[in-house]
Amino acid sequence: MFLRAFFSFFVSSSTAILNKVERKYYLLCGCCGMVTSLAYSSASDYVSAPMASLLACIALTVISQLLGHLVERPSLIFTISGIMPIVPGSLLFKTFNALAENDYNQSLSYGAQAILVGVSIALGFFFNESFAAILGQFRHKKG
Question: What is the pLDDT of the chain when averaged over all its residues?
Fold first, then answer.
C-alpha cells in the first residue's frame, strides 16, 4: 500500500509538470495523489472499486479545496494531478485484452467496472465544483 502511495506521488507530480503547474506546487500535487491513492487502497479493502474510487475522489476534493484555499490557487490544479492514480487504465486494458481473447463475459465485467469507476471520478469532480461553489458563496456572504 505504501509503495503504491510512493509511486502515486511521482505520477501526480509528473502530471503537474506536464500540465505546467508552477514549480513550487509540485510537492503539493504529489501529496494530493498520495492521499488519493491511500484513500483508494484503504477503501478498496472494504468496498467495491467504483465505491472506493468515489470515496478517494471525495478525499481528494477535501484536500484539494483545502490546499487551494491555503495557497490561494484554484483547487483544480491539485485535483487534476491527484486524480491520476485512480484512473481506470488497467481495467480498460483488461477489457480489451478479454475482447481480443473472445472472452466476452469477462470483457463485459471489466468494462462495466471501468465505466463505473469513470462515473465515480466524474462524480468526484462534480463534488469538487459543488463544494467550491458553496465555499465561494459562503466567503462572499462573509466578506
Answer: 86
